[in-house]
Prior knowledge:
Layout: H1 5-11, E1 16-21, H2 26-30, E2 36-42, E3 48-55, H3 58-61, H4 63-70, H5 76-79, H6 90-104, H7 107-117
Antiparallel strand pairs: 1-2, 2-3
Amino acid sequence: MGLTEEDARKIHRKVLIARAELAHNDRAVTDRQRQGGIKIVVGSRGRILGATIAGAHAGELILPWVMALKQRASLRSMTDLIVPYPTLSEISKRAAGAYYAPALFSRGTRLLVKVLSRF
Length: 119
C-alpha cells in the first residue's frame, strides 16, 4: 500500500528502505510460517511513504501501516507501539526499528555513550 520503492524514488529526493523478515519472528517460527517479510518505504524525516508485506496473514499485518500512511505518520510512531509477544505483528516494530539501527549504532553514538559514561 502507498508508494512502491520505485515510485517513491521518482517523486522524493531521499528514500530509505526498512525491512524485517518473518524468519526472525518468534510467532512465525513457532507456527512454521517463516517465509515472507515486510518492506517499508520511508521518506525524509522518517515519513512513511509505503509498505509491502508478503507472507502468512499479510492482510491483517498491513492495517497499522494503512492507518499510519493515512495519518501521514512518521516511522517513529511505529517504534513507539507496544505489541504483544509473541505475535506476527512484532514484525512491524522490528522493521521500524531497523530504520533507526544505523544511527543508533553509529560511530558518533558510540563515542557519545563513551564520553557520557565517564560522568
